[in-house]
Specification:
342 residues, ten-stranded mixed sheet, 34% helix, two-stranded antiparallel sheet, alpha/beta, elongated
Length: 342
């Protein structure tokens, strides 16, 4: 797909078709503006015929708007597969949560995305396609972006699709493209330790966050199968290495599950675990997922947990729940449209 190519690769593609190189600039601009092929007025019909099989379909299958202004997008790709993304509006800008896989194979107990396993990886261009579609839908363009920040926290485990995700990071942050700084991009992982080291060694500077959700390996293994492969100690060492290589602080996501990880003792254990590290903790009220048996901590317990962390000098905050009424909150994204129709 053409969105998998950077500008120089587009030039090579156009030249191989026997077309003049200026066509590459026209084609690249059309892609960045999320124009479907029949909307491109400065390309000849004969040229469009040549590229038709490689040109993406910028298709928003459905759009749901929450009472809080959050917008959930359902994107459809050429093979009929779909993923979901969520646009959240803040005072500092608009953050788009994008998906990196169709489904997920991590199998975390609280998350809807992996309930039916992994269907396939998304290509770099298919991840970028989500950004470009929403930017256009919100009235943005290349120079006046309406998507200012990106979080890779949608469907899938980003580091389980490492090659495509890192190529996406290069494409989306390129000054020849839509030019969203890697400092405005957050990558969330359940802790694939070797890939964290690789991300650091290859010079990426995105904000790294780890889905932790427990303070010891035994409890973590009960809700996150990946914990059987990588210990918390290994994850912390990888995070320290990432900080040493990039200078970027890292974060931990901690979903509060009633009766499992939400006690004051758990807060003390978490504070002891993270003491002195250049990090912050993002407490997540566990969102309802049909088919999952876990319940979230109540407001009182959440506040007590947060206050305890702050008292122990841990930089912590409670994530604001957005889009829950449209199943667009953390942990709720899935291929629901296709699953309900199957």
């Amino acid at each position: 797909m053409l969105l998998d190519f950077n500008k120089s690769e587009i030039k090579e593609y156009v030249t191989a078709l026997g077309e003049p190189t200026f066509r590459a600039g026209q084609l690249f601009d059309a892609l960045l503006q999320a124009k479907n092929i029949d909307e491109i007025s400065n390309l000849s019909s004969s040229f469009k015929d040549k590229i038709a099989n490689d040109y993406p379909s910028f298709c928003i299958l459905k759009k749901l708007i929450s009472q809080d202004g959050t917008t959930k997008y359902i994107f459809k790709f050429l093979d009929g597969e779909i993923v979901e993304g969520v646009l959240m509006k803040y005072k500092y800008g608009n953050t788009l949560c994008v998906s990196t896989q169709v489904g997920c194979r991590m199998g975390c107990a609280f998350c809807a995305s992996g309930m039916n396993g992994l269907k396939r990886n998304l290509s770099a261009g298919e991840i970028l396609q989500q950004v470009l579609c929403v930017n256009r839908d919100q009235g943005g363009n290349i120079k006046n972006r309406k998507v200012t920040n990106i979080v890779l926290m949608g469907m899938g485990e980003p580091l389980d699709n490492y090659d495509n995700v890192t190529k996406f990071l290069k494409l989306v942050s390129s000054n020849e493209g839509i030019n969203i700084s890697q400092r405005n991009i957050t990558l969330s992982t359940c802790g694939l330790v070797p890939k964290i080291y690789q991300l650091a060694d290859e010079g990426f500077t995105v904000n790294l966050t780890i889905s932790l959700h427990a303070t010891n390996d035994e409890n973590r293994q009960k809700i996150m199968p990946v914990a059987k492969s990588y210990s918390i100690e290994q994850i912390l060492n990888a995070c320290k290495y990432y900080f040493e290589k990039t200078g970027r602080r890292f974060g931990f996501e901690y979903a509060l599950v009633a009766g499992q990880n939400d006690s004051i003792k758990d807060a003390d254990n978490l504070a002891s675990l993270l003491k002195g590290l250049p990090c912050m903790v993002n407490l997540i009220p566990l969102n309802y997922v049909k088919g999952k048996k876990l319940s979230g901590a109540n407001e009182k317990q959440t506040k007590a947990f947060l206050d305890r962390l702050l008292c122990r000098n841990i930089n912590a905050t409670k994530r604001r729940t957005m889009g829950a009424d449209i199943s667009g909150a953390c942990g709720q994204l899935r291929r629901k449209v296709l699953e309900e129709g199957s």
